């Protein structure tokens, strides 16, 4: 039995732990946070990732956790809805695709693995020898593992210790997300307010009494320690409900703020150390595919490790994942440009196109053409069947 340390307990880490336990590995997961991280945004599970959760026997459970979003509306500065569009149409969601909250998926994966995996919260690694698998922790005593896998996200500690170099590519945008009171009493409804260079997204799902707000804006400035200041400077006085939402964000207990970035790596492993999920190939939230890449990457990495020794397994894992990753990295870059308008005219034209689209006789063909890049990227890998 080989001992594996996974660093990170969000999505990729517990998913990888699920598969590795199935293949009789002894798995430890260490997570810096003191407990499982709740919150987050709604996420899509598409294409090959749907096949993975079905092979895990979790598809029905996830279907029961769906957000059940009904409509999306563009609003103007006075709060008037300019256009209402079915949520699945706007997001390019196919009939089989699933949309759930990140926290719900994370909790499900943790619940499925907590009895068979050694979870250690409130700790992280501080030193790592890729050649031997020797690890020093911030709090626990040093240990040596046969394999160490970084599933610790965009700002991966494992990647920094084992790979070095600057592989995070900022896309010159910042994003902020928080849970706020549902003062507009939204019911499975999403509102989008757009002004040049800035977008606000507010919604409430069928499973939550609160709402989620997302602020997205173009910026290339340093933000460490100035998150709320930058957010207020950018959005205060921008119209609609922005001021009230900013006040709510300031007292939210799950405020998230970061760059919109991607990870570009020449290799996903070195010696005894591998990477999975955002740590290896973050496509940015703009792709809508980060969760799917994490689930598929966990499946492929565990399957290859079950078949052969690490060096060969890591090489095959990268060979299988690389085209899929590159397709989704491109999708993330392309999508970002469509998420923020450059002028009031662009915002208005976009809203009018969505208003007219459902009434056109060829609407299904037009929608299929518009959303084809999403579905092509989601299916850009042929999953092996592992025993």
UniProtKB/TrEMBL annotation:
This is FAD-dependent oxidoreductase. Signal peptide: none annotated. InterPro entries: FAD-bd, FAD/NAD-bd_sf, FAD_aromatic-hydroxylase. It holds the Pfam family FAD_binding_3. SUPFAM superfamilies: FAD/NAD(P)-binding domain (SSF51905). GO terms for molecular function: FAD binding. Residues 3-308 form the FAD-binding domain.
């Amino acid at each position: 039995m080989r001992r594996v340390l996974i660093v990170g307990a969000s999505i990729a880490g517990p998913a990888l732990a699920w598969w590795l336990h199935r293949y009789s590995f002894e798995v430890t997961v260490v997570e810096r946070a003191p407990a499982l991280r709740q919150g987050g945004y709604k996420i899509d599970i598409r294409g090959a990732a749907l096949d993975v959760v079905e092979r895990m026997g979790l598809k029905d459970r996830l279907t029961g956790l769906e957000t059940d979003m009904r409509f999306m509306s563009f609003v103007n500065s006075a709060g008037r809805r300019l256009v209402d569009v079915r949520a699945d149409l706007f997001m390019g969601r196919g009939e089989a695709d699933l949309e759930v909250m990140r926290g719900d998926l994370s909790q499900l994966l943790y619940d499925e693995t907590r009895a068979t995996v050694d979870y250690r919260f409130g700790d992280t690694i501080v030193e790592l020898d890729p050649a031997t698998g020797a690890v020093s922790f911030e709090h626990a005593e040093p240990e040596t593992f046969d394999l160490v896998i970084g599933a610790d996200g965009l700002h991966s500690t494992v990647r920094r210790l084992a790979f070095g170099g600057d592989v995070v590519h900022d896309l010159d945008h910042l994003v902020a997300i928080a849970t706020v009171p549902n003062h507009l009493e939204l019911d499975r409804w999403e509102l989008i307010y757009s002004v040049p260079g800035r977008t606000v997204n507010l919604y409430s799902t069928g499973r939550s009494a609160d709402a989620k707000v997302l602020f997205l804006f173009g910026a290339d400035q340093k933000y460490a320690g100035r998150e709320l200041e930058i957010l207020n400077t950018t959005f205060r006085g921008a119209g609609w409900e922005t001021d009230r939402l900013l006040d709510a964000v300031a007292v939210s207990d799950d405020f998230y703020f970061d760059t919109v970035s991607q990870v570009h790596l020449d290799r996903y492993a070195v010696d005894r150390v591998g990477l999975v999920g955002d740590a290896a190939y973050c496509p940015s939230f703009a792709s809508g595919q980060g969760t799917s890449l994490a689930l598929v990457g966990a499946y492929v990495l565990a399957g290859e490790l079950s078949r052969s020794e690490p060096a060969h397994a890591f090489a095959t894992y990268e060979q299988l994942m690389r085209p899929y990753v590159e397709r989704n990295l491109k999708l993330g870059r392309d999508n970002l440009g469509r998420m923020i308008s450059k002028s009031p005219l662009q915002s208005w034209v976009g809203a009018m196109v969505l208003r007219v689209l459902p009434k056109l006789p060829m609407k299904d063909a037009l929608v299929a053409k518009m959303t084809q890049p999403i579905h092509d990227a989601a299916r850009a890998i042929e999953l092996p069947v592992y025993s």
